[in-house]
Amino acid sequence: MSLVKHLLLLTLALPLLSGCLIFGRRTTDQPIDAGAVAQLKAGMSKNEVTGKLGAPHEIIFSNKEHDPLREHAYVYEYKNDAGTALFFFVVNFGNLDSKRDRVVVFFDEAGKVAYVGQSLKGGEASFGFPFGK
User: Hey, which of 4, 33, 46, 125 would disulfide with 99, CB 3.0 to 4.6 Å?
Assistant: First the structure.
């Protein structure tokens, strides 16, 4: 092939090979301090819980017939999304890694901490290659 034909093929192929790589991160709410969660103990008051973790994201009320307004649990959440996208002329690829921190503090009939459930994985969201990790 002549040099002109090679240059012509390269010129025609370049738009098909050009692309764009995008990294993006989105967080929802505030990260939850694992140290503050570790300090929560059975028998603590609601004021002590909010003093350590702040205002809850959600309050779950009791479903008991005679006490429907009792605060049964406080829910704290944080979400972290890390996304990668690869755009070519015609073909596009993407990857989204979504991790969440979730802490649920359950209260007994007296309004004291009975149990703390937690999953603190929000910091583990990572960028990945669009074809998998």
Answer: 125
Cα–Cα distance between 24 and 69 in angstroms, integer? Answer: 41
CB 123 within 8 A of CB 99: yes
List Cβ neighbours of 6 (8 Å cut-off, separation of 6 or more).
Answer: none
Indicate the pairing of strand 92-107 with strand 58-61.
unpaired
Taking residue 44's Cβ as centre, other Cβ atoms within 10 Å add up to 17
SS3 88: strand
The two tokens of residue 77 are 């959440």
The pTM score is 0.71
Digit-coded pLDDT (tens) for 79-113: 999 888 877 767 777 888 888 999 999 998 888 99
Phi, psi of 16 (to 5 degrees): -75, -25
Report yes or no: 113 and 42 within 8 Å, Cβ to Cβ.
Answer: yes
Of 113, 115, 82, 114, the C-alpha closest to 100 is 82
